[in-house]
């Protein structure tokens, strides 16, 4: 048998084997489509039942979504990763919710920011994105009812708390009803052909700080200009010869900017946490998988902070974050932003909060919500 005949036989065998598998894939796709539409009809029925019982005010329930995603992760046997499965089911839930009403999500814009990426990660691509000029505007849009929810950065693993978000939480009537944890990769975006042709670097102040050492090594004498957001920096860099921006992948794609250098953040595990702001509380999701955020203060006397922490220790409640901020009304007085494990309705957390209310000069529970599902 000639080499050509062997080759033809090999190709025929390959095509026959592929045909069997592709037939299976086509059949599975048909089943998936049918199941997805069945799920969508069930979601519609949930909305109809809520409407009949006068409970249609909030179609998005973060605690229910967290329950579904955690159950799916527990059931997942691969080969798809838990992260991939979680992304897929978020998109399914997002599409189903949009059949009732697409959720309007306010975030720090313009399009292409990490806040947009966090919003899409949490609410899916079926949500209606509403970019805002400032974090203040994010709060205002949700408070006024122009947006269903807002997404605001609250802390970064490298640079710490986002002060403006903390200050606004002090005065808002909104509740924290969710959180998003986003891995941050910073890229140097520019149309300049090489580093020696870069004349200035635009970015948000936090991003400049997150890439401080890289900039010192590679662009030590190039001016660094702080702007309102990474996406705004990308917009400006796209319009100015020699200008560069530090921003993420979304900004690079949206503003068609080449990545001259990738992943230039100084800390390899650079991560930002965002809070989801709404006009309602989230109920308990899964025992041990919720978090409560609060603000507390007490006159600045010896042992004052210890007085506020004792109720948590006595109730066996773990603090996961403690951040101080100057109080606006009195010089050298402080308020403390605290995150604790557990939902405010859990007996141990409720006991701690009840005792804290008796001790604190000021106490505001910002909300209880599911811990971010990755």
From TrEMBL:
It is found in: Cytoplasm. Residues 293-370 form the ACT domain. The keyword Amino-acid biosynthesis applies. Residues 104-279 form the Prephenate dehydratase domain. Pathway: Amino-acid biosynthesis; L-phenylalanine biosynthesis; phenylpyruvate from prephenate: step 1/1; Metabolic intermediate biosynthesis; prephenate biosynthesis; prephenate from chorismate: step 1/1. Keywords: Amino-acid biosynthesis, Aromatic amino acid biosynthesis, Cytoplasm, Isomerase, Lyase, Multifunctional enzyme, Phenylalanine biosynthesis. Its EC number is 4.2.1.51, 5.4.99.5. InterPro entries: ACT-like_dom_sf (IPR045865), ACT_dom (IPR002912), Chor_mutase/pphenate_deHydtase (IPR008242), Chorismate_II_sf (IPR036263), CM_dom_sf (IPR036979), CM_II_prokaryot (IPR002701), G/b/e-P-prot_chorismate_mutase (IPR010957), Preph_deHydtase (IPR001086). Its main location: cytoplasm. It catalyses: prephenate + H(+) = 3-phenylpyruvate + CO2 + H2O; chorismate = prephenate. Residues 12-104 form the Chorismate mutase domain. Catalyzes the Claisen rearrangement of chorismate to prephenate and the decarboxylation/dehydration of prephenate to phenylpyruvate. This is Bifunctional chorismate mutase/prephenate dehydratase.
């Amino acid at each position: 048998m000639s080499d050509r005949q062997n080759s033809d036989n090999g190709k025929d065998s390959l095509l026959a084997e592929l045909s069997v598998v592709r037939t299976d894939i086509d059949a599975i796709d048909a089943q998936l489509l049918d199941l997805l539409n069945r799920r969508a009809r069930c979601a519609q029925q949930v909305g109809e039942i809520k409407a009949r019982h006068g409970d249609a005010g909030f179609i998005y329930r973060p605690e229910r979504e967290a329950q579904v995603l955690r159950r799916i992760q527990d059931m997942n046997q691969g080969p798809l990763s838990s992260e991939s499965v979680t992304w897929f089911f978020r998109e399914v839930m997002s599409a189903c919710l949009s059949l009732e009403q697409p959720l309007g999500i306010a975030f720090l814009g313009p399009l292409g920011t990490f806040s947009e990426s966090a919003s899409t990660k949490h609410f899916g691509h079926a949500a209606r994105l509403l970019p805002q000029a400032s974090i203040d505007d994010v709060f205002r849009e949700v408070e006024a009812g122009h947006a269903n929810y807002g997404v605001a950065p609250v802390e970064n693993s490298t640079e710490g708390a986002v002060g403006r978000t903390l200050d606004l939480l002090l005065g808002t009537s909104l509740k924290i009803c969710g959180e998003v944890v986003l891995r941050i990769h910073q890229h140097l975006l520019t149309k300049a052909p090489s580093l020696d042709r870069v004349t200035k670097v635009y970015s948000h102040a936090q991003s400049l700080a997150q890439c401080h050492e890289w900039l010192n090594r590679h662009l030590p004498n190039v001016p660094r200009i702080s702007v309102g957001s990474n996406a705004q920096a990308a917009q400006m860099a796209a319009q100015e010869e020699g200008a560069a921006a530090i921003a993420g992948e979304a900004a690079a794609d949206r503003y068609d900017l080449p990545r001259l250098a990738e992943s230039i953040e100084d800390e390899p595990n650079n991560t930002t946490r965002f809070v989801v702001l709404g006009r309602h509380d989230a109920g308990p999701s899964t025992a041990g998988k919720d978090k409560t955020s609060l603000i507390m203060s007490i006159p600045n006397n010896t042992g004052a902070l210890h007085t506020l922490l004792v109720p948590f220790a006595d109730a066996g409640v773990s603090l996961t974050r403690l951040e101080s901020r100057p109080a606006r009304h009195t010089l050298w007085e402080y308020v403390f932003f605290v995150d604790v494990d557990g939902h405010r309705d859990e007996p141990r957390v409720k006991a701690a909060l009840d005792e804290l209310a008796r001790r604190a000069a000021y106490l505001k529970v910002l909300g209880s919500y599911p811990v971010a599902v990755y």
